[in-house]
Write a structure and sequence with these properties.
By secondary structure, this protein is mainly alpha-helical. About 75% of the residues lie in helices and about 0% in strands. Helix 1 packs antiparallel against helix 2 and helix 1 runs antiparallel to helix 4.
Length: about 140
C-alpha cells in the first residue's frame, strides 16, 4: 500500500476517535453539548478528501440531535412523574428517571467508547449509529 494512503487513513481514524471523545465530553458538560462540541470539531477539521470522516460526523450528529431531544422529553416526563408522586406524599417515582439515566449513559458514554475502540483496532470506520432524521447530509 501507499505510505501517503496509510497516513491519510490513520489521520481519519484519529479524527473520528476525537469526534467521539468530544461527544462524550459534551454530553457531560450541558444537555446539547453532545451535539454542539462534535459539530464544532467537525467544522474545524473537515476537508474535502475526508469523505469517511464527514459521513461519520453527519451520522453521529443526526442521531445525537434526535436522541438528545427524545431524552430531554423523557427526563421532563420523569421529573413530572416524580413531582406528582411527591405531591401526593409518596416517596417513589425515581425508577423511571433511573432507567432513563442508564439508557442515556449507555448511549452517550459506553457505546461511543466501544466505537472508538473498534475503529482504532480495525483501522476503518463503520456505520455505528442507526439511521435517523437527516439534519446533516454527507
Amino acid at each position: 500500500m501507499n505510505v501517503g494512503y496509510n497516513s491519510l487513513i490513520i489521520r481519519i481514524m484519529k479524527k473520528t476517535a476525537m469526534l467521539y471523545v468530544w461527544m462524550i465530553v459534551g454530553n457531560f458538560l450541558f444537555p446539547l453539548g453532545g451535539v454542539l462540541l462534535p459539530y464544532f470539531y467537525w467544522k474545524l477539521n473537515r476537508k474535502t478528501e475526508d469523505v469517511a470522516f464527514t459521513k461519520e460526523a453527519c451520522n453521529l450528529l443526526n442521531f445525537q440531535i434526535l436522541f438528545s431531544f427524545i431524552m430531554i422529553g423523557v427526563f421532563v416526563f420523569g421529573w413530572y412523574r416524580a413531582i406528582v408522586h411527591w405531591s401526593v406524599g409518596e416517596v417513589g417515582g425515581w425508577d423511571f428517571i433511573k432507567c432513563a439515566f442508564v439508557l442515556w449513559l449507555a448511549v452517550n458514554f459506553i457505546y461511543p467508547l466501544f466505537v472508538i475502540f473498534i475503529t482504532l483496532a480495525k483501522g476503518k470506520s463503520f456505520r455505528a449509529w442507526p439511521p435517523s432524521i437527516p439534519f446533516f447530509r454527507a
